[in-house]
């Protein structure tokens, strides 16, 4: 391994996280990556044993501070009042990872003009996930939806740059400014201000409720567009969109800031499937491929992405949610074998 190798903090997670990370590392090894991987603990299960003010132990936070990126397995986020915020939210806010990006792309043999293919960009540091909430009394609770022009403008710049880099012509702003006139009004103002700097890219606007309907009714109208919204709205919309491509298990994601990035599957930890070797590893594997490209290992990242798509298209070793009968490890091994063939060629 090169002394200049990029350093990556790998959080195993909990629930099905450890087995998904194990499978992903098998695929990365087949791609002959040159990364310094530091295995880390983190998640609800470890916190139950060790306690603390965070689901990540101090040594994991230290490793993150010293790393170039993070690959995170799924983690459990409980609903109990007073427990720490989720691992993902904690990392996003600590490292100011303001752009959560989820590509929605269909693995299909259908003609290309009918395949679903767009990108969801979500502001990742504030909104309803700011963590500002109170119980006013035993029967009344409030959460504060924090919205700042700075955060809205920088994620808007990210969305327009993403469209420009891809050669796409439209950014779609999703909001409810007709009702939430202060917070979503500010979001919409910021998007419109930024759009003036990207004359070649059109700005479309959809109300969140209409957007949810249009995704089900006319999903192809959003092809080759960047969808942009606030934290909670885009969390929901991107999850809905995953149903268009067959499974949340295929959706990779990146959390990007100006100096750090975290890559993770878009889905949760599915603790009821822990140890059953049934969960689709695609999202975790594609997130790792994305991380490799981000860190400069484009050949390895592209090989993993192509190998994953090939295995899904063949259908012989896929998991149940993709219509197959393979397990997590079997699908991972098939992808690793495909990677070896691609790199050898």
Structural class: alpha/beta
> Mean pLDDT, nearest integer?
94
Strand order of the largest sheet: 2-1-3-12-11-4-5-10-8-9
* Percent of sequence in beta strands: 15-25%
In total, the number of domains comes to 2
- Estimated radius of gyration: 20 Å
Please give the number of β-strands: 12
Q: What is the CATH-assigned architecture of the largest domain?
A: 3-Layer(aba) Sandwich
CATH class of the largest domain: Alpha Beta
Number of helices: 11
Q: What is the ordering of alpha helices and beta strands? A: EHEHHEHEEEEHEHEHEHEEHHH
Distance between the termini: 23 Å
CATH superfamily of the largest domain: Isopropylmalate Dehydrogenase
The CATH topology name of the largest domain reads Isopropylmalate Dehydrogenase
Taken from the alpha-carbon principal axes, the silhouette is: globular
Report helical residue fraction.
Answer: 25-40%
Report the major sheet: 10 strands, mixed
Describe the model.
The chain is α/β, with parallel strands linked by helices. The protein folds into two domains: 1-103 and 248-345, Isopropylmalate Dehydrogenase (3-Layer(aba) Sandwich), CATH 3.40.718.10; 107-245, 3-Layer(aba) Sandwich (Isopropylmalate Dehydrogenase). The chain is 40% helix and 19% strand. The protein is built from eleven helices and twelve strands. The protein has helices at residues 17-30, 44-50, 58-65, 87-94, 149-166, 183-195, 208-217, 231-242, 282-294, 298-314, 328-344, and strands spanning 6-11, 35-40, 69-72, 99-105, 117-123, 133-137, 140-143, 170-175, 202-207, 226-229, 252-256, 261-265. It has a ten-stranded mixed sheet, with helices on both faces. Strands 6-7 form a two-stranded antiparallel sheet. α1 packs parallel to α11 (328-344), α7 runs parallel beside α8 and α9 (282-294) runs antiparallel to α10 (298-314). The longest helix has 18 residues, at 149-166. The two termini are 23 Å apart. 47% of the residues are buried.
């Amino acid at each position: 391994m090169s002394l200049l190798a990029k350093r990556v903090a790998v959080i195993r997670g909990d629930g099905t996280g450890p087995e998904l990370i194990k499978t992903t590392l098998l695929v990365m090894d087949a791609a002959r990556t040159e990364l310094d991987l530091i295995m880390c603990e983190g998640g609800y299960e470890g916190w139950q044993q060790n306690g603390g003010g965070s689901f990540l132990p101090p040594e994991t936070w230290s490793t993150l501070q010293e790393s170039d990126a993070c690959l995170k397995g799924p983690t459990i986020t409980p609903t109990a009042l007073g427990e720490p915020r989720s691992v993902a939210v904690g990392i996003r806010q600590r490292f100011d990872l303001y752009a959560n990006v989820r590509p929605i792309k269909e693995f299909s043999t259908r003609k290309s003009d009918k395949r679903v293919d767009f990108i969801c960009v979500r502001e990742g540091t504030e909104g309803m996930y700011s963590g500002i909430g109170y119980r006013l009394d035993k029967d009344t609770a409030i959460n504060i939806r924090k919205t700042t022009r700075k955060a809205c403008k920088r994620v808007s710049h990210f969305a327009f740059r993403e469209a420009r880099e891809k050669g796409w012509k439209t950014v779609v702003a999703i909001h409810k400014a007709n009702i939430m006139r202060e917070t979503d009004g500010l979001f919409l103002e910021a998007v419109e201000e930024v759009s003036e700097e990207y004359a070649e890219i059109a700005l479309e606007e959809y109300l969140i409720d209409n957007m949810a309907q249009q995704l089900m009714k006319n999903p192809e109208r959003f092809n080759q567009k960047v969808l942009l919204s606030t934290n909670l709205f885009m969390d929901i919309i991107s999850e809905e969109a995953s149903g268009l491509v067959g499974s949340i298990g295929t959706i990779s994601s990146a959390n990007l800031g100006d100096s750090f990035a975290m890559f993770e599957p878009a889905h949760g930890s599915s603790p009821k499937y822990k140890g059953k070797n049934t969960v689709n590893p695609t999202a975790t594997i594609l997130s790792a491929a994305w991380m490799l490209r981000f860190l400069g290992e484009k050949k390895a990242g592209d090989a993993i992405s192509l190998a994953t798509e090939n295995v899904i298209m063949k259908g012989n070793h896929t998991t149940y949610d993709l219509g197959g009968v393979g397990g997590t490890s079997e699908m991972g091994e098939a992808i690793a074998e495909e990677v070896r063939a691609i790199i050898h060629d």
